[in-house]
Design brief:
265 residues, 6-stranded mixed β-sheet, 6-stranded parallel β-sheet, 10 helices, 39% helix, 18% strand, globular, binds NADP nicotinamide-adenine-dinucleotide phosphate
């Protein structure tokens, strides 16, 4: 199969390595391109991807831009209004981030039902995580600095506490869904030691660096820490199950992740 990831800058993306690995594990050889394009050129080039590939993944900032080119949104893509996987023949869009998020937590032994969870950031990823946490029975609070965005997510999903400021109170789990801690904010944590010392578990969706400042502080405080590396892999696993028409299996995904990591080190 001919596959690709399309994004603004995917030159350092782990997607080619992950998907090539997964396809070989599934016994289905593939080629996998990383296509970086300027945001203003996406619309004029979109049809080219439908001609050239059997399926493709979409990443920042094209997860919503691709929707007008599709006939149908399926599953979470319909709920989140964002797509990360496209089946070309059917022109169908899927979103596998939520699956990756839940499997990351499950395989790290993080239970969420009935837990008090603070989500930092209600952007694309934050929104998906909030929905999955609510569906799983967590008691969720969401901090987002952009008031309008916070209210929009609240109107959509409700049943959580919207926060304009972060109170220093205990949470079972704190999840960083902001980009703070990567790129030009490496070494910066979205919240301080005062809060993290009161919490049990910290989860950072960031995977580069592997140990963000947020996780570093939590680790120093003796807390359980989980980074976003396995989420990235599990969302890729789910995407490939969709592309190949396979039923996902959590134990298989975990075994693949372990052997992928071993092969990388
Ligand atoms: P996004 O839609 O751009 O949302 C980014 C969020 O971060 C927004 O809530 C934004 O707030 C907030 N933010 C950014 N800078 C901030 C600052 N200085 N202070 C306070 N809030 C700030 O991006 P996304 O797609 O949700 O991705 C968010 C993070 O998750 C990124 O680090 C991404 O790499 C990671 N991610 C990881 C995976 C994985 O598989 N591990 C999957 C998806 C995303 P405003 O609304 O105020 O700008």
């Amino acid at each position: 199969m001919k596959l690709a990831v399309i994004g603004k800058d995917v030159s350092q993306s782990l997607s080619p390595a992950m998907h090539t690995f997964l396809f070989s594990r599934f016994g289905a050889p593939c080629s996998y391109d990383a296509v970086s394009i300027a945001p203003e050129r996406f619309a004029e080039r979109a049809e080219e991807f439908f001609e050239r590939y059997d399926a493709f993944n979409v990443t920042i900032p094209f997860k919503t831009d691709v929707i007008p080119f599709l006939k149908e949104l399926r599953g979470d893509a319909r709920v989140f209004g964002a797509v990360n996987t496209v089946l070309v023949k059917e022109r169908a869009g899927y979103n596998t981030d939520g699956y990756g998020f839940l499997l990351m937590l499950e395989n790290a032994g993080v239970e969420i039902e009935g837990k008090r969870v603070l989500v930092l950031g209600a952007g694309g990823a934050g929104r998906s995580c909030v929905k999955k946490l609510l569906d799983a029975g967590a008691v969720v609070s969401v901090y987002e600095r952009f008031e309008e965005r916070l209210q929009a997510v609240y109107r959509e999903f409700g049943s959580f506490t919207p926060l304009k400021e972060i109170p220093i109170v205990p949470y079972d789990i704190v999840i960083n869904c902001t980009g703070i801690g990567m790129h030009d904010t490496v070494g910066v944590s979205p919240v301080g030691r005062e809060l993290l010392s009161l919490c049990d578990t910290t989860v950072d969706l960031i995977y580069v660096p592997a140990r963000s400042k947020f996780l570093e502080i939590a680790q120093q405080e003796g807390k359980r820490t989980v980074n976003g590396d396995s989420m990235l892999f599990y969302q890729a696993y789910m995407a490939d199950c969709i592309i190949l028409g396979k039923t996902p299996d959590a134990a298989q995904a975990k075994a693949f992740y372990q052997s992928f990591r071993e092969a990388q080190s």
